[in-house]
UniProtKB/TrEMBL annotation:
Its EC number is 2.4.3.9. PANTHER family: LACTOSYLCERAMIDE ALPHA-2,3-SIALYLTRANSFERASE, SIALYLTRANSFERASE. It holds the Pfam family Glyco_transf_29. It is a single-pass type II membrane protein. It comes from Mustela putorius furo (European domestic ferret). This is Lactosylceramide alpha-2,3-sialyltransferase. The keyword Glycoprotein applies. The lineage of its organism: Eukaryota, Metazoa, Chordata, Craniata, Vertebrata.
Amino acid sequence: MWTRTVQRLNSAPVEGYSEHVGNKTTIRMTYPEGAPLSDLEYYSNDLFVAVLFKSVDFSWLQAMVKNETLPFWVRLFFWKQVAEKIPLQPKHFRILNPVIIKETAFDILQYSEPQSRFWGRDKNVPTIGVIAVILATHLCDEVSLAGFGYDLNQPKTPLHYFDNLCMAAMNFQTMHNVTTETRFLVRLVKEGVVEDLSGGIHCEF
């Protein structure tokens, strides 16, 4: 017997969009700044998978699991507002194994090891999307993608289904190498490792 698992990333909402994106969520995978702020996006049987990149992320997750108030000084270390409460029981929280992130960045995408820099960043942090794809290939026999991919040749194309960001925004971020990720995703689709349901990766078959 098999079951269908639905991963939703970051703050991708169901409320108000279920006609197009369905109403099932099995895993909500996000880093702290990406977690939904609305209680309506959490369902009692969901698994909340936290992707932790920095030490303060652990403090945030601990507060969420224990249903505690996050100290003001901790909130200062996040680049945008983070959820103050997540209405799930502790048994529904998980931490993504950092080995998955390391495997994605250094083994699969072949990024260089982080270097100390006085200014700026190396683009060697995988997006949550490609990390989720790698996780899915570890957990599932079949993997299908819907509404995911980066076509930088269409800068006015919506980046997400739920906000006003366009694809051009990816040209201005400093952490992710979406060109490398796109080549990798195209290869996965062409070799039949994953199925691209919505054509977001824009492969030529």
